[in-house]
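Checked the freezer inventory, then went back to the computational side. Two predictions to log before the end of the day. The first one is the construct we discussed on Monday; recording sequence and tokens without edits.
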Amino acid sequence: QWYITAYEPIYDGTSKLIGVLYVGVPLKHMDILRKTVLNTRVGQTGYVTILTGEGEYAISKDGKRDGELIKHIKTSDGKLPIQELIQQAKQLSAGTIGSKRYLWQSGAETRESEKMAHFMYFKPWDWIILAGAPVSELNAVVRDIDYAILKKIKFQFILAVFVLVSVSVIWY
């Protein structure tokens, strides 16, 4: 079972290490955090997940793969995206967010698709907190925004032509 832990060295009067203070709380007692992660969706099918710095799921999508080691999964392009993501995450400055595009096969998908993930590294617990979604979903949102902007521009153009024609008719 997963624990959230903290360790603190204990020194004697001569600065010699004589022990370690350990405090551990089972992750199952962190219900609010877990529920929040499990219930967060990004777009239609994207999700938030937490990986350990060793490449295991601490909290996976729907909690079905918790504890599974995934850093050795190689994608069809020959890459190890989780290893790359972990390396990139551990190089981030505290509080900064990284991003990565990679191939991945999630859940019920029958084949790999391109994903976009944004992530940050939480060093005290050696966690990578990741929010990701298929690029196709993100592109659909961009297309919807572009379409709305185009509709607005067309409307403004038609309105401007109408006003110009109306003013011309009234003026002459």
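The second is the one RB wanted added to the comparison set:
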Amino acid sequence: KIDYYKKQNQIITIGETFINIQKKYKMKSKDIFFSLNEKKIESKYLTSVIDNLNNEIISSSFRYDHKLDLLRGTNIEVSDNDQNKYFLKNGMVKLREFVLLGKDIKVILRNDLFGNKENEPKIKGNSVNYKNDKTTITKGIFTSCKNSDNCPPWSITSKKIIHDKKKKEIHYKDAWLRIYNAPVLYFPKFFHPDPSVDRRSGLLQPRLNNSNVLGSSLNLPYFHVISPNKDVTFKPTMFDDNIYMFQNEYR
């Protein structure tokens, strides 16, 4: 059902409503208000927007400005075509350029990081700016830890985290490696492959161990690709009593 108010030049729909924007975005919502003079559409109900590249935006409420081609919403969830998910309390999307801006961001990356689908790689931060396949997050924290007691208690905190989907890399500025939330190693600049990469040189998942003989230890393995069928892994281990152990594996 659609009610048209001629004097105000407004449209109000009742029930499920479908909207096609520029033949590029398909929107599904409920009970929308459309001001033809201001070229603005809004709804207080759950809304889904899907583009031609199969990126999906879900919002608990929305306001779309056709003049600015800007979609504002609350409790936004964005699922891209690489199986990454973005959660924001408040944000906006510039549909023409597909630019995502918002605060209180949480990104759930593909769960096959480090070859273990039990991991739950994620990034959290204060704000996000997504543009041209680059996600920039301020005051962020990254970890592949699953939300359980058996997860390795490590994370990387950074003033700025940049996820480059084209290069398939995650970059950090002023980064700290933390074990049990205690800072262990500092990196002015640091990067590693994103979860979509199967094989590339770089640091592997750090591990914290405990021995009755040597005490607690931290293992920081580094994986180096030599050729398509050759690689080597360096496995330095640091113990409590200034004991260092170096192991290498060549394949």
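For RB: The mean pLDDT is 86. The longest strand covers residues 182-193. Let me know if you want it refolded.
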